[in-house]
Specification:
- There is one protein chain.
- With about 600 residues, the protein is of the alpha+beta class.
- It is about 30% helix and about 10% strand.
- The chain contains 19 helices and twelve strands.
- A hairpin with a 7-residue loop joins β11 and β12.
- α8 runs parallel beside α10 and α15 packs parallel to α16.
- The longest helix is centred in the N-terminal third of the chain and has 25 residues.
Length: about 600
């Protein structure tokens, strides 16, 4: 594995001969173009595109089992450790400067290394006027992708390190390199401008041979998200309402042009019926079996279908692949050993799934903490596996998530907190079946996310019933559309009494709708919640055999955290690797590092 490339070498490199390298070899569709001269690529559209496609090599796969700094385990979504490997504990301990130098910490040095892809984007834009044997449409699409990918990588930096020098040309040795960092909002506006440039050049839909390439909607989504980050409390300390307005307008632009209020290019994937889970309840001398019916279809957003119209943009590198995403979610009792394995949802996060009545479990008098699996939000069953559930291809095997059970023996690679994650893991995919994992989508943006972004920004402007001028729906209506897809009732009046009350429900809605989709860590950070103790603790549920209990076990919340991550004020902005932060006085390190 290559260590992080220094900032200076990245912005200077690749002058006459084009040399592409990668920390991962997963991008089969993008061929290595090492040794191709500029003269060659300027004479051939396909060689030029091959060079440009090097920009996709640095796309981060937030579900990759090969990323030992697994992003979900850096938030309250769940806990995982590395089996005989130092990377995950270092990242969870908050030693992020060191994380840049550890093996397979791709959230850190893998993302930071994408400066090289920014340079490819800049070089493409510079060289395009000289390209021969290409139509204007082909040139436009090449240029649109270059603007988009430049914006994308700056968006990745923005979420982590904050504002950056926004480099729009390929540097020469005689150029001035000591560039100051822009503010967070200045960088967000630069990203938005690049996205605007991309949006007018990219198609609304690629043909099947180019599935996964960024299209117009992807550019609009990145713009909306960058502006939402800029409006959020961690980056908008004066709560400037104009920033929320920009974010709401950008989300609505996408919804009104390409979404359900426009040409329907993007549509929510609706529930097609019902599914069921079966679980075993020990009753003493024998056992009984119960089933739960719930709205189906939510898992089809992420698996099974080769493409669908809820996806706005997904990882181009993983289109048609991504089948290994489930490995981190398994235990060593179910799948052969991985370095990172046994991801287990925090019990306190599991509590975020409402009852089917549309109430938080603490607000629903019908909720029984000793019978907690019944009558929950359908996304609970699509996302969480619980004690006693039938899941694997072994007909007599039911998950044993009690202490000492086969899935919870307190060894590395076990589910330590009493639950397992189902989302992104197809049923019967395990060591016994020999069944290949279904096609899995590594989605960066989908329509539900944009609806929730609009709802959040609109609520901050005027509260739950606020409708942006020119828009067709209010903040709460946008959330209700997302809930309706899984047959959940509208947001209850209990949560609509104020902007503050509804904000908490929007946060919860994002938590359950976008679980494990690489969003939660960055949401908690932009909201200023990540350093609060409740979001750093990973709590476990203990199951004590009791045949007279509703589930056959007494369920007790262990209030002593199984693990507490380190996240302090300085962690709201990731550090710049020291070799780059010390290179120029103008290129400032983030506070606290």
């Amino acid at each position: 594995m290559k260590k992080i490339l220094k900032f200076l070498s990245i912005i200077l490199g690749f002058s006459a001969m084009i040399s592409l390298s990668s920390c991962e070899d997963y991008l089969d569709k993008v061929q290595d173009s090492a040794g191709i001269s500029e003269a060659d690529i300027l004479e051939d559209y396909f060689k030029f595109r091959q060079y440009e496609d090097g920009m996709f090599r640095d796309l981060q796969n937030y579900l990759s089992a090969g990323d030992y700094s697994y992003i979900a385990a850096l938030s309250d979504e769940g806990y995982v450790n590395s089996i005989n490997w130092e990377t995950m504990p270092i990242a969870q301990s908050g030693d992020w400067l060191r994380a840049y130098d550890t093996g397979q910490a791709l959230q850190f040095y893998g993302v930071w290394g994408s400066w090289r892809s920014i340079r490819i984007a800049n070089r493409v834009i510079e060289l395009l006027p000289k390209l021969e044997n290409a139509t204007q449409v082909e040139k436009d699409r090449l240029k649109g992708q270059a603007h988009f990918m430049r914006a994308w990588y700056y968006y990745e930096f923005l979420k982590r390190q904050g504002g950056m020098p926004y480099i729009t040309k390929s540097f020469k040795a005689s150029d001035e390199f000591s560039l100051p960092r822009l503010s967070f909002h200045e960088t967000a506006l630069k990203i938005a401008a690049d996205c605007d440039s991309a949006a007018v050049l990219l198609p609304q839909r690629w043909d099947i041979q180019n599935l996964g390439r960024p299209e117009k909607g992807a550019a609009m989504a990145v713009k909306a998200s960058a502006l939402l980050f800029s409006a959020s409390p961690s980056n908008n300390t004066t709560n400037d309402n104009a920033k929320w307005e920009l974010a709401a307008e950008a989300s609505w632009d996408l919804l009104s042009e390409l979404g359900p209020y426009g040409n329907n290019r993007y549509k929510l994937l609706e529930s097609g019926g019902t599914d069921q889970v079966t679980y075993k309840i020990p009753t003493g001398a024998s056992e009984r079996y119960e089933t739960i019916q719930y709205a189906s279809g939510f898992d089809s957003i992420f698996m099974y279908q080769p493409y669908h119209d809820e996806i706005i943009w997904e990882n181009y590198a993983a289109v048609g692949d991504g089948g290994g995403a489930y490995r981190v979610l398994t235990t060593t009792s179910i799948q052969s050993k991985n370095v990172t394995q046994g991801f287990t949802p925090s019990a306190n996060f599991v509590d975020r799934f409402e009852t089917k009545n549309g109430l938080a479990i603490t607000d629903d008098s019908s909720f029984d903490s000793q019978n907690p699996y019944i009558d929950r939000d359908p996304r609970f069953y699509h996302s969480i596996l619980f004690n006693g559930e039938r899941w694997t291809s072994q007909s007599g095997k039911y998950l044993e998530l009690f202490d000492g059970g086969t899935e919870r023996k307190s060894q590395p690679g076990d589910a330590h907190l009493g639950y397992m994650a189902r989302k992104f893991w197809g049923k019967n995919v395990d060591q016994w079946s020999g069944t290949a994992a279904p096609q899995t989508h590594i989605i960066y943006f989908r329509l539900a996310d944009i609806l929730l972004q609009y709802a959040e920004a609109a609520n901050e402007i005027g509260g739950p019933n606020y409708t942006l001028p020119g828009a067709s729906i209010s903040a709460v209506q946008a959330v209700n559309i997302v809930r309706s897809r899984v047959k959940m009732p509208n947001v209850k009046a209990l949560y609509l009494s104020s902007k503050d009350a509804f904000r908490e429900r929007i946060k919860n809605e994002r938590a359950v709708e976008l679980y494990l989709e690489g969003k939660r860590f960055f949401d908690l950070s932009r909201w200023g919640d990540a350093s609060k103790l409740e979001y750093k603790q990973h709590l476990a549920d203990d199951f004590i055999l009791n045949p007279s209990a509703p589930t056959g076990y007494d369920i007790n919340r262990n209030n002593v955290p199984y693990f507490t991550r380190t996240f302090n004020q300085k962690h709201y902005k990731w550090p710049i690797p020291l070799s780059d932060a010390l290179m120029f006085e103008e290129f400032k390190q983030n506070p606290g590092w």
